[in-house]
Amino acid sequence: MKHTSTADSGRKKRLGTILFILFNVIVIGITAYFDFGKSEVISEKDLLDMNPWYLLAVAGCFVTALAAETGKYYIMLRRTTGTANLRTAFKVAALGKYYDNITPLGAGGQPFQALYLHRSGIDSGTSAAIPVAGFLSLQGAFILLAAAVLIFGGRIVDSAGLMIPAYVGFLFYLFIPLAIIFFAISPSVTERVLRFFIQLFAKLHLIKHPEEKEASFIATLHDSIVSISTIFKNKFQFLEITLLSLLFQIALCSMPYFVLRAFGNTLSFIHVFKYCIYIYLCITFIPTPGNSGAAEGSFYALFSVLGQGHLFWAMLVWRFFCYYMFIITGFAITIFGHRTKEHTLPDNSSAA
């Protein structure tokens, strides 16, 4: 009986892995269709015209962004648990960006990071707090850059079709962090909201033992607030986290410049960077994974300074490094974890 149970468990795991792979193939296929399915026919000569050194710079932006996220999670893990290592931080960072990019509105990264941390043996409050703090720091960094561009950057675009969505997107960026901060500093309000939904779900027979769930969620809430406070309490570490988050955003928004340079365009870095900020503001509320469709349509206007053949390759190179590479990296980590039956974070025993 035990052998049969083990075999069934093994089959379920293999089936789960296969379904997971198929899901990723479908997601990538759909986004690739929206990205490039209607592009013009291009030639290999257009690709050979590309300057490989600038292509290396685009790849460097991706490495820099992921390294910045890794460093940020290393600092937060060290601060909250007292121990951390770079492998742990790298996996948390990469898996967060992976799930962000395959879920609508980029909302999947934090729950999976929290689950991954909790399975490592980290308490529920800290497991929930670290991804939230990571999200807040990234949002805050982009808000700082966007505010600087909107206030001091001059008029990059004349079209109201970009200006109005940009300001709406800025408010959208502000709303979510402010809401999280509000609930963090008003635990009594958050508790009432939690109780309301727990009672509602209990009446709908979606959860059992609502009293136990309520006590558990409130305890996790309090632990999370303490952990978030611990992460940001130290001014030096707060500065470190902020600078690393800024580095991530700067690296991501620098990619279009190096792509344009790879194909011989000479637009200034500042101009391309500011235009990139505007575009990300405009597409932030698009509910497709990775803002697919809207992102390509918006960046098409920026890359349209290139010829038609170069335009295709520019879009492909940019999209590969700013989107697909995060998916490929996270997917590889996830599959490796399944194959090695790794369900916990790696060794966290070394002192920071």
Percent helix, as a range, is over 70%
SSE arrangement, N to C: HHHHHHHHHHHHH
The count of DSSP E runs of length 2 or more, i.e. the number of strands, is 0
Mean pLDDT: 75
Which stretches are low in confidence, meaning pLDDT under 50 for 5 or more residues running? 340-352
What is the distance, rounded to the nearest whole angstrom, between the alpha carbons of the first and last residues? 46 Å
Radius of gyration: 22 Å
Would you kindly provide a written description of the structure presented here, covering whatever features stand out?
- With 352 residues, the protein is mainly α.
- It contains 13 helices and no strands.
- Residues 340-352 have low confidence and may be disordered.
Keywords:
0% strand, single chain, disordered C terminus, 79% helix, 352 residues, mainly alpha
Kindly summarize this structure in a few lines:
This protein is mainly alpha-helical and 352 residues long.
List the helices and strands and how they pair.
Blueprint lengths: L1 H35 L7 H5 L3 H30 L4 H17 L6 H11 L4 H29 L7 H26 L1 H17 L6 H24 L1 H28 L6 H15 L10 H10 L4 H32 L13
Helix pairs in contact: 1-13, 3-4, 3-6, 3-10, 3-13, 4-5, 4-13, 5-6, 6-7, 6-9, 6-10, 6-11, 7-11, 8-9, 10-11, 10-13, 11-12, 12-13
